[in-house]
Amino acid sequence: METNIVTRFAPSPTGYLHIGGLRTALFNYLYARANGGKFLLRIEDTDKARNSNEAKEAILRAFDWVGLDYDGEVIYQSERFGIYEKYIQLLLGEGKAYYCYMSKEELEDLREAQKARGKTPRYDNRYRDFQGTPPQGIQPVVRIKAPLEGEISFDDGVKGKISINAKEIDDFIIARSDGSPTYNFVVAIDDALMGVTDIIRGDDHLSNTPKQILIYQALNFKIPKFFHVPMILNPQGHKLSKRDGAMNVMEYQSMGYLPEALLNFLIRLGWSYGDQEIFSKEEMLRLFNPNDLNTAPSAYNQEKLLWLNSHYLKVLSVDSINALLPLYNEQIPSQKIQDILYVELQERSKTLQEFVALLKECLLPVKTYDEKMKNKLQTLENIHLLKELIIYFKAIKNPIDSTKVAETELESFANFQGIKPKSFFMLLRFALLGKSGGVSLAPLLASLEKEEILLRLQNALANLEMA
Ligand code: GLU
After folding, report:
1. For residues 419 and 441, what is the distance between their CA atoms, to the nearest angstrom?
2. At residue 304, does pLDDT exceed 80?
């Protein structure tokens, strides 16, 4: 067990939380929780033009839904400008950062000239050691003094040793001319002040890390351990699009996914433990270690998610299902339905949405009868059989209160009629559901009230008797 681990998740509320973000959050959460450490949530909301309150709320809602609890209050970068300003002044005072008076046009000209010479555009350090009188009418930016030579290296927990030649990093801007601090600067300041020891994040941030390390070094902050996780790709090996699942995490809820399934799905995208697929939260906590993160990108697999979801749906308690029904605009049905039919519906559904659709089908009287089925079933023999079924069901004294009892009744009806047990199932299905497919007949019969069964049989009879 590691000690004093502090991790964080630091989303920008410029869009909804998508599954890539949730996976990052999960990894950080597990690492902290498994080691008795802290997991912090920081909202990176400095970009006023691109932030939305709605996105902020959606991130918090998604966290709540999947049950990732964070320590302390949410930290908002937008409330910390005073802190950033203090550190900018500190670096200026220590000569580790400086004002640069180059105008936008001058910078543009410099870049064009460099490009024309086939060089990578970069700032030419012209104000790095400037001692003269600043030009008039220019609001300066603040640049950090990056090392002029040597290497910037760190040991990435996923990628191994990363070394960047200092020449590749110029004196980058840490405060814009309006005084606002830049992205890499605030991330480094916050991670340091929040005491973050381990940063697990997408490898799209890998190129930011050397810059952030320079800030740590300039301020003598302890450099955290970084883990840059490869992206989640679609099955074709491309960036995830909305169609492949890169949508708001909360949409998974509306589609009927369970948070347990989603988290289990995500932990396996980029991490494995032998060939185990199902991980309870306890197992995730016990087994996950960021040092075992895969170096190769992982592929989003919708079938796998459905498979996991049906697994978790099967083991869901009746009470848990009842608690979830209002989310899908469904009321809690009778005790009989809960006791008898839920198991059957759970077996047959991959998502809660499917569960609710099947439940609705069972509960509501048949509105429309499948035409093709009707044409097939419309024989005198079937009409007779349906009448016999009505007589039989009317005469049943003992309640049909379990699937087993319903099965026995169906068998004895068949015996009584001298027909094969399954030979009238299509007819019965037509009467009870109005269509082929759907749930098994025995649990359906057992869960419906006798009057409801008789009503459906009579309605079907009337329908078959009609031309
Ligand atoms: N705010 C960044 C993002 O949403 C994450 C920053 C980080 O993890 O360092 O991509």
Report:
1. 17
2. yes
